[in-house]
Structure formats: structure tokens, C-alpha cells
Amino acid sequence: MASFRDRCIHSRQGGRLASTTTADIDSLVAGLKDRPRVVLHFHGGLIDDVLGFATAQRLAPVYQATGVDPVFFVWSSGLLETLHGNLPRILEESAFRTLLNRVTRYVTGTVFGQPGQRAAGLAATPSPAAVAAELARVRTGHEPYARMIVPPDVPPLGESEQLRIAAELSADTELAERTQEIVNAALDKDKPQTNEPAVAARDAIGGRSAAATLMSPDVVADLAARAGPGERALVSTALIVRKTVRVVAAVVGRFRQRTDHGLYPTVVEEILREFYLANAGAAIWDAMKRQTADTFTGPDDEVRAGRYFLDRFAELLATGTRPQVTVVGHSAGAVFIGNLLDDLARRRAAADDPLPADFRLRDVVLLAPACTVAQLAPVVRRQSELFDRFRMFTMTDPAERADHLVPFLYPRSLLYFISGVLERGPSGQPAVTPIAGMQHWYLDAAATGPDSDDLRAFLRADPERTVWSPGEGGPGLNAGARSHIAFDNDPEILASVAAMLAD
After folding, report:
1. How much of the chain is helix, strand and coil, in % rounded to 5?
2. 69-74 and 8-10 as β-strands: parallel, antiparallel, unpaired?
3. What is the DSSP letter of 464?
């Protein structure tokens, strides 16, 4: 029996081969000749190469026990390291805490204030002390403002209200102090200060923009550029004020559009998008998704892992070997599978490709998929030509809300964070985006449009296409995972996948 390492295709940036060689893939594909069942497994994008290989080692005997030959695609993004390293520090830093208090204060007065009170100005806005007391509840495991009920109609944040908020923030001494700290650190960063702890802290985090903050470097640079020589004590907070008002308006807008994730999480998400996006994992998330596409579509003069495997596998199929093929993708592995199916469709349509025109996958299995609704909808529209069965294992919304990405600080799951912070809209700008693995999207009547409508209709057409975890539905339909990272390690889910493979 082959070693689990012999069943791994290891890729790096751009989908290029890493430790795997073309000879390794040739041997791997040759070993699939006349085999009855093959599973292609794509692990999640949070983990690094070491954990990717560990996942392959753990799952290889699970697949082999069902008589299936596994092939593991091992790749790395570094997203988990970034999120676990940066997010707690961001959410604890003084500048973030001040912004959190001020944005929450004005959003609360706007969203939950009575119409008559709002017409009179900002009199209904709670005090910073009252907001601080409510925000402190997060330290005891309680989500701030979770008990408040959003009114059915949330009015827009008018221009006059934005001007009033800007005026109050311009006179806010605490906000001015936080801004001064950031600018001072930015202006001092190039000076020789060998013994100061702040410099050591800055160097320890890889030379980020300033010791006082993990705000995006472009934000810090803009702040520093507005501070004239010798005027650091008199730094204008105009940029911070303008951005903060924009965050308040964005949060109110999400409540109006029903794309909010609850008051406290939504405020956290919008502050991160406006001020901290570069250090909140957005660039890594974008690069990781590009890697899953580049492995199939990179320049022809370079060997790409996914393309080379499919080239050899298509040649094998052309000889008459026709194994039943299942693809399994966990989290961002679903993005990988979407790109794989795109390439299979292209190959089927190409006259000079050895892939048989009638080749189809047996099963597409997604575990807590982190792909967007817009990415998955085209996949299910092509079911009749590309695959026979579809099954998605993912959490119920109560379980998703209880799976806190950063305990005590961000009380939502990774998929909520991807939806609210990391994803981008059609224009390339950060935008709240429906994620296919979120039941929150699935149950949201306000989430409409061709992609949402088509995907929802596809899933509802066959109740076996969706398995909500935790839950029981019989062989192949049981799931017990209560956290995002548990989906490729949950005994009930693994037993369900094994039942599908044995069917």
C-alpha cells in the first residue's frame, strides 16, 4: 500500500509544484489505472503545509478502508497564523477600543433610537461610559447588545446627522490622543531607538506600519503625511473622523439592507475593513484564492500542480480506465473544487484535450464551504454535465454563532468573518458577501438575486444535498461538528462521507 506522502500533490504560491515532482504525479496517476474509486481531497485554506500533510496522513486510512484510492492536494495560505496572531492584538489595541466605543455609540443611537429622538438630533445617543459598560460584557462571554431587537425599518444616516457626529468626534480628546500615538510612532519608526520596547515590538511583528497600531500601512502613512514637522502634538484627527463617520454609515446601511451580523460583530467588521484590512488577512485570503485558480490556469510554459495532474489523469481516462471520482473540499477547499470544475468544463469542450467528453464526477462533497454563493451557483448550474451527486455538510446558524473565531472578542465563526471582512464585491472593493456554507444566508429571505435564488432552489430540490451540523439524518447524512475546523475530523461526518463512497 502506498505511503500517504505518495498520494499527496504539494503546491506552493501560484499553484506551482513544491516538494512534489512531475515524476511523482506520473507515478501517482499510473497507480490509479483500473482502480474502481478515486477521491480527490482538498483541505481548508487556513492551515499550512505541515498540517496539510498531517490531514492527509489522518484521512488516508479512512478513505482506503472504503476501498477508495485518495489523492490529497496539499497547499498553504498562512491565513490561520495571521488571524490568530493579528486579530487578538488588533481587537485589544487602544485605538481599536476607542473606535469601537465611538462607532457603537452612534450606531446604537441611530439604529435603536426612537424616530422622535433622532429628529431632535443626537440626544438619544448613549454616553461613552454607558457604551463601555455594555462592551465590557464581552469579557464575560456575553455578546454586547445581543438582546436588543432591530426595528423593522431603520432610517438612513442623514447628512445632518453625519455632520453632527463629525463635529463631536472632532472635539473628542481621547480620539485625538489615539491618533497622536499612532502618528508619533509612525514618524519615529526610522529613528535609531535601540533600547525602546516599542521598537522591539514593531520589529517582532515583521516591520508593520507602526508600533502603536496594526492599522493598515496606507492608513498610517496617510495619517503621518498630514502631520507637519514639529506639530505632532497638534495632529489633526480629520482623517480619523471622516473614516469613523464612514464606518457608522456603513453599519447603519447594513442594518437597513439586512446584511448585518448583529450589532457588535458588525461594528467590529466595519472598523476592520476601514482601518485594519491589510493586517486582518484580506491580502492572504485574496492570494490564497488566486493560488487555487492559478494551479489550473497559469502560463503554459510553467508546470502547475493542478493542471499537470489533470493532464495525466485525462490521458489515463482516455485509455479506458473509468474510476468513479469523488471530490471533497473543506472550507476554502470548496474554492479549489470550483476552479477544478471550471477546468474540467473547459477540457470537455476542447477538441484537442484527451479528457473524454462524457466524463463526470460521481460526487461533489463540501465541508463547511468558504466559497461565496456567487462562486458555487455556477457549479450547481452545471451539475447535469459535470457531476451526479452533491452534498454539503455545514453548521446550523446557532452553531455558527457559537463558534467564536476570537473568543471574547469576535463572537462569530470564520465564515462570518470571511463574509463581513475578507471578501470583495464585483468592483474589487471589500463588500459583505453571502458565503455558501452559512445557514444565515440560506435562511435570509432578503438574500435574493440569480445566484442566491438558483443555489437555494438547487439545495432545496433534494433534502440530501444539505446536512446541517450537528444533526442526524441516517447513513451518509449525519454530522456532529460544532466548529469550523472540526469538519474533516468529526467522526459522524467522516462516517457519512465513507457511507457515500461505499454506496
Report:
1. 55, 10, 35
2. parallel
3. G
